[in-house]
Amino acid sequence: MPESVRDLMPGAIDRFGARVHAVARWDDPTPCTEWTVRELVNHLVGEHLWVPHLLAGEGLEQVGDRYDGDVLGDDPVRAWDRAAARSLAAWKGADLSGTARFSFGEAPLTVYAEQMLLDLTVHEWDLARATRQPESLDPAAVARGLTYAQANAERMAGLGIVAPPVPTISTDPAVQLLSALGRAV
Prior knowledge:
Blueprint: H1 5-21, H2 37-55, H3 60-63, H4 76-93, E1 99-102, E2 105-108, H5 109-130, H6 139-159, H7 173-180
Antiparallel strand pairs: 1-2
Helix pairs in contact: 1-4, 1-5, 2-4, 2-5, 5-6, 6-7
């Protein structure tokens, strides 16, 4: 039986965190061509700062702009650790049967969880590549992310949240996932 997204989330958060802890140079470029390593980590920290609010039913009007801009401060590793701990606690206690309000409208929390797992998995690879760390990914997270990415490719492309797919003939699920999300592996 495949693991649930809730079961996969702690490992994904831990794996991304291990990559963050190994960063030596924060200004290096990443496969996300618009972001440096610092900006990539800032994106994930911001995303995980939102998690407790969204899972508690709060929306944009309650949270406001408090997580806009630089959320890393002088200690990016500590900022990640704090955001990750809060996010993980919120995921563990969340009732995923409800919905959350996003900038694009309302969506089921199960969809939000799938998106967050996909974001962690792909950006784990981005961070590993940018910082010259081993690029292997968790097979269960990859399988779950690939299923989501394939089912939602047109919608994600239409929202402009991923780069255009990179053609691949690889049968490796990780390569397929990364290629579907615009990474040249």
